[in-house]
Amino acid sequence: MEDFFVIGQIVNTQGHKGEVRVLPLTDFPERYLDLDSVLLDLPGGLQETQIEAVRYHKQFIILKLVGCETMDQAEKLKNVYIKVKPEQAVELPEGHYFIKDIIGLEVFTLEGELLGRIEDVLQVTSNDIYVVKNGKKEILIPAIKDVVKEINLESRRMLIDPLEGLC
Length: 167
Fold this sequence. Notes:
By secondary structure, this protein is mostly beta strands. The chain folds into two domains: 5-87, Elongation Factor Tu (Ef-tu), domain 3 (Beta Barrel); 99-160, PRC-barrel domain (SH3 type barrels, Roll). Helices cover 5% and strands 49% of the residues. The chain has helices spanning 71-75, 99-102, and strands at 5-14, 19-24, 37-42, 45-57, 60-65, 81-84, 106-109, 114-123, 128-134, 137-142, 148-152, 157-160. The radius of gyration is 19 Å and the shape is elongated.
């Protein structure tokens, strides 16, 4: 099964001509300008839809999708997630990772102690926070270079040097 990338969520209509307002769920909102089509995650399954036009308004992306001509049609798309195929993923700079690749990594200290597995990534203003769980215990690890020393996607491991009092 292919892993698709979520890049936005339709949160409302925009105007009366079938445009939709999209909350970008990507670090690269400009990527919409390079897309000819997207996948709409509809209740019946993924539906590939062509993009007719893209514009930006405040923190939102306004999309005109082919076949969506009225406000009523756009209204039916509210809360639908927008996805792209893996081959449409943005190439990340070295040392950056997709959240989907981070989820599930086992986290070890420099001393070799297993702290748990990354269950979630919280995206906050300053830096991401990795939510590591080991049974009922939960540890929040800041995604900063002083703490995260190595990420190895092949071995599915992360090596950290925890801050004082973190663990």
